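Exercise 7 asks you to align residues with C-alpha cells for two separate proteins.
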Amino acid sequence: MNSALNILVTGACGQLGNEMQLQAAANSQHSWHFTDVATGRVDGVFAVSPLDITDPAAIDTFVQQKSIDIIVNCAAYTAVDRAESEPEKAHLLNATAPGYLAAAVQRRCGHLIQISTDYVFDGTAHIPYTEDCPTCPASVYGLTKLAGEEAVVTANPSAMIIRTAWLYSRFGNNFMKTMLRLGREKDTLGVIFDQIGTPTYARDLAAAIMTAINSGIQPGTYHFSDEGVCSWFDFTLAIHRMAGINTCRVRPLHTAEYPTPAARPHYSVLDKSKIKATYHLEIPHWETSLQACLKEFLL
C-alpha cells in the first residue's frame, strides 16, 4: 500500500472520531479529512467539516474532490433504547448511509472501514463469539448495524468491518463518565451484574484501525475489544476504585430489575484471534486501559 493516503473519517466529533484525530496527528504522512453533522473544532485537534452521510451525491462529490482512498466510518446512530421507537432513523444512519459510503469509495477502488457492534449477536453464547458465529440481533440497534454490515459488503467487497463492544473514552458520553458522575452524586448505585462483556478504550480501537491502515487493509470482518472479561457491575467498581470514589455503595442488579426498551446481550465477549493474527496486535487488558484513560481524564 502507498505510504501516503487520503483518508476520510466520518463521525469525527464522537468518541472514536476524536481518538482517530489523535492517531492522525501522529500519522501526518497521510492527508486527513474529518467530517460530522456538526462543524468546527470540538474536542479534537483537527477542524471538522460538514458532510451529510445520508446524501449519496454529497458523499460522491466529497470523495471524488478529495481523492479519498480510505473512509473510516465512525458515524452511527447509537441511542440503543431510542432506536426501538425510531427504527427508520436508526436504519438510515446505521445501514443506508454506510452503504452510500462504501459505494462512493469503491468507485475509487478504495476501502471502507466500518465500525460495527457486539449487538449483532443475541448474547446467548457462553464462549467468545468468533466472526463466523451466526448473527441474531435482539434489538433494532443490532438489526440496523447488521444491515449496515451487509450493505457495506454488497457495495464494496474490499471493505473491513470491525465489531467492537462497551466503548468508552474521555470524549463524548459513555458508561465510564456516567459512573464517575453518579459515583460522586449518589450514596448508593445499582448496576447490572448479569451482562458480561469487555470494556474497550476507544483509543485502543483507534490504534488498531491505524495499524490496519498502515499495514494494508485486509478485507473481511474482525472483532476487537480490550482483553479480559467483566460485568457492568465489575466495571463500575473498577472505575470507582481507580478514581478514588469511596462514598458510593455499588450494589449488583439483575437485568430484570432494570428493564430497558432494547434487549441487551447477556454475554457479548468477542474472540479477537483473527485481528491479532492478521495485524500482530498486542491488546491491553481492560483494567490497564481504564487506568490510562482515567489518568488522562481526571488530570
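Second protein for Exercise 7:
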Amino acid sequence: MESLPQAHPDAGRRFWQTIAAGGLVAYPTDTLYGLGVDAGNGVALERLALLKGRPGPFSVMVGRYEQLTEYALIPPQLANKLSRMLPGPYTFILPVREQGTLPPRLSGPDGRIGFRVPDHPFLREVYRYQSGLVVTTSANRAGEPPIQDPQAIAEQFSDAVDLLIDGGSLPDSKGSTIIDPAVSPWLIIRQGDGRV
C-alpha cells in the first residue's frame, strides 16, 4: 500500500492515477474515511464489494453540485435546496440522468443511486483539476465500525487498498445523513452528521 499525506503535492495526482488504473483508494471525507474506486470499472467495484463483504448498493461521489446535475435528475423544486446543502455531510438518493450508464450494483431496487458531495479540503482540491465518478463507502467491513485512524486503515487493509491518503485521525462521526427527497417531508434513511 502506498501512503501519502493529504498535503503532499502529488496526492491528488496519485488519487486519480490509482482510480483510473482500477485501484482502490482510502481517503478522508467530511465525515468518515472512505474507500473508493472508479464507478465505471466493474472489476474494481467487485474488489470493493469483496473487501466490504456486501454486494451493494454503494454511493457515488462527485466534486461539486454542478457535476451532480450532470449525472442525476434533480427536480426543479429540489435544486435550490440541494445546491445550498452541498457540499456537505449528506447522501441524496436520486434518479440517474441516463439509465444504464452506471453498473446496476450501485443502485437500489428502484434504479436510483446515492450521490455524495463531500465538503473536505483534500477532495475539494482533487476535484478542482479533474472530475470523475468515484464509488465511495466507509472504510470498514460490513457490520464493523468505521475506522477513523489512517494507521489502523493501513494495518487492516494493507493487502487490499492500493493508496491511502492520510488526513490524520478524524473525529467520531455517524457518517453522512442519507436522504430520500422523493417524498415530502424528506425520508431520512439514516441520520448522520447532517441536519435537515
